[in-house]
Amino acid sequence: MLFYGILGNRGSGKTNLLTYFLYQAYLEGRPIFATYHLNFPSTFITYTQLTKMGDEMINAVVGLDEIGEGADAYDFVLATPRKISRFISQMRKLNVDAYYTDQRFNKVAKRLRDQTDYFVFMEDNDRQTPNHSFTSCLSEFNYTTTDSDLEIIQRGTFYGKPLQHLFNSREIVRNDN
Q1: N or C: which end of the chain has fewer CB within 10 A?
Q2: Structure pTM?
């Protein structure tokens, strides 16, 4: 199936967009697994748990927030990042779609970047507004979608405010190791 990477600076709407994709899949009746807590029916998993899953993932959609916590490019010699890459390479057999977020392209392990079908680059529209803060943010984000060769497919604006009740944007994602 498809593997999407959502990249951008802190506060650029990455997790907000990830939550949108997961919520849409939930509304379609697909099981949802995520490495962060969601406020709609879903299963919270750690990166290590992800590497041990099998048939329970059939037809699922997986959200991997801050993938560098589980598969950092510098830690790829460790077992968990290699197993995550193996899971992603086999997810077609389970009809799984997966999305990940991170702040930097090169922070994501190369094997995972190479398996990514589409990248979405996010930017906070109101970051330059005077007195911009976490609580005053309008949650209006520009995005650019590219294919795996980084050729631009689409540009647009994503309005994330209506989704903010579906997740805790202050949750710190950590690998369990």
Answers
A1: C
A2: 0.86
Query: DSSP labels for 92-149?
Result: GGGT-EEEEEES-GGGB-HHHHHH-SEEEEEEETTTTSTT--TTT---EEEEEEEETT
Rounded CA-CA distance 94/165 in Å is: 30
Split into its structural domains, the chain has a count of 1
Q: Which residues, in sequence order, are bridge partners of residue 6?
A: 101, 120
Any domain includes 98: yes
| Structure confidence by residue, pLDDT tens digits, 46-76 | 888 888 888 888 999 999 998 877 665 455 4
Element (H, E) at 161: none
Domain containing 135 equals: 3-166
Stretch 79-104: mean pLDDT, rounded? 84
- The reply to whether 174 falls in a domain is no
- What is the CATH classification number for the domain harbouring 8? 3.40.50.300
- The C-alpha atoms of residue 88 and residue 3 are separated, in whole angstroms, by 8
